Amino acid sequence: MKALKILSGILKILTVLTFSALMIVVLIQIIGRFTPFSFVWTEELTRYLFIYSVAFGAPVAMEKREYITVDLLIGFLPEKVRKYYNAFIYFVLGVFGAMLITHAYDFALLGEGQTSATLEIEMFYVHLSMVITLIFVSLYSFLNIYHMLRDSINESEEGVE
């Protein structure tokens, strides 16, 4: 469990770093509009930073069970039934994510040898963000099931932590 806390901390730090960098680059882009200088790289870097901030942030949201859900009818179910229903939802999300990991990696391999126009970053690393997201979202989906069924956690309580 200590390894999971470290992993969670790393994902949170990476989310904050990529999002902070995104805000700084956007600020540079805005300032560039009022100066004679042209920062052509900002649009592309903003896109890649956004992709990675989502790639690191989505697993954090899954860990804390903060994904948006429509629970209008679920609220009427008894607590025990609701727990198993939510476990089933996490199971479907985990299995679906796990099934897509190899396909996402195959897609990332398509980017090998291709570089982005302005920054000349190999596109493999940009596409690899999907693999990262799917691995950790699937992991936290299954961990949520484990903790939900083992500890009888309420779905309103925080996730894996």
From TrEMBL:
<keyword id="KW-0813">Transport</keyword>
<keyword id="KW-0997">Cell inner membrane</keyword>
<feature type="transmembrane region" description="Helical">
    <location>
        <begin position="124"/>
        <end position="143"/>
    </location>
</feature>
<keyword id="KW-1133">Transmembrane helix</keyword>
<dbReference type="InterPro" id="IPR055348">
    <property type="entry name" value="DctQ"/>
</dbReference>
<dbReference type="GO" id="GO:0022857">
    <property type="term" value="F:transmembrane transporter activity"/>
</dbReference>
<protein>
    <submittedName>
        <fullName>TRAP-type C4-dicarboxylate transport system, small permease component</fullName>
    </submittedName>
</protein>
<dbReference type="Pfam" id="PF04290">
    <property type="entry name" value="DctQ"/>
</dbReference>
<dbReference type="GO" id="GO:0015740">
    <property type="term" value="P:C4-dicarboxylate transport"/>
</dbReference>
<keyword id="KW-1003">Cell membrane</keyword>
<keyword id="KW-0812">Transmembrane</keyword>
<keyword id="KW-0472">Membrane</keyword>
<feature type="domain" description="Tripartite ATP-independent periplasmic transporters DctQ component">
    <location>
        <begin position="22"/>
        <end position="150"/>
    </location>
</feature>
<dbReference type="InterPro" id="IPR007387">
    <property type="entry name" value="TRAP_DctQ"/>
</dbReference>
<feature type="transmembrane region" description="Helical">
    <location>
        <begin position="84"/>
        <end position="104"/>
    </location>
</feature>
<feature type="transmembrane region" description="Helical">
    <location>
        <begin position="12"/>
        <end position="33"/>
    </location>
</feature>
<feature type="transmembrane region" description="Helical">
    <location>
        <begin position="45"/>
        <end position="63"/>
    </location>
</feature>
<comment type="similarity">
    <text>Belongs to the TRAP transporter small permease family.</text>
</comment>
<dbReference type="GO" id="GO:0005886">
    <property type="term" value="C:plasma membrane"/>
</dbReference>
